[in-house]
Write a structure and sequence with these properties.
8 helices; alpha/beta
Length: about 250
Amino acid sequence: MDGCLEETTVLAFIVARRIWHWNFVVCVALFGAFLLIDLGFFSANVPKIVEGGWFPLAFGLGVFILMSTWKLGRDLLFASIAADSIPLPDFIESASLGCTTVPGTAVFMTSNPAAVPHALLHSLKHYKSLHERVVLLSVVTLDVPHVATAQRVAVETINPQFHRVTIFYGFTDNPDLPEALEWCTEQGLRIDMMDTSFFLGRETLVPRVGAAMALWRERLFVGMYRNAGSVAAYFNLPPNRVVELGSQIVL
C-alpha cells in the first residue's frame, strides 16, 4: 500500500509538470512534502518485506518489465518500419505510370498515413497490380471516452484511385471498422464490403545481438508479439475478406 502511495505521488508530479505545466519549484515543494510522508510510512513497513512483503514487490517488478519491454519493443518496431518506408506522394506518382489495375477496393491499414504501408508494397510485389480503389486506413484513439458515430470518419481523396480514411474512436468504444466505413458514403466514398479486401501486414520479428534492447528483452518481446491478439479480430474485420502479407524484420 505504501509503495502505491509513493508511485501515486511520483505520477502526480509527472502529470502536473507535463500536462498541467505547473512550475517546477511548486511541484517539488508540494509533491516533495507528500513524498516525505509516504517514505515515512514505507520505512516503517520495511521489516515486513522479508515476512512476505517481497511477493507484491516482485510481482509489480515483473509487470513493469513486461509493460516496459512491450512499449520499447513497439517503438523499435515502428522505427524500423518507418526507416524503410516510402513517402506516399512518390509512390502514387510512380504507380500511376502504368501499373495494372484490377477491379475492387483494397483497404490497407497503416499507422503512418504519410507513408506507404508495407502490406501495399508487398501486395504490389506479389500481384504486380493495384486495385481500382486503394484506401489507406488509419485508426486514431482519442483521449475521450466516446466519439459520436457521425463524427467518427474523415475521408481525404488524394486522386480518383487513392483515398485516405481516418477513423476516430474513444477509449471506451468497441472498434468495428466495417460499420465505421459505411459512413464514408456520406463523404463521397462508397465502400461495398462484398467487393472489398483488407490487407494486413504480418511481421515476423528476429532478435539480434547489439540492438537497442538487451537480447533477453528482445526475445521476451518477440514472444509477446507472437502471442498478441489478432488485428482482424480486434477491429471486427470479416475473416473471408482479410489478406495477410508477411515480412521479416530484424530488431
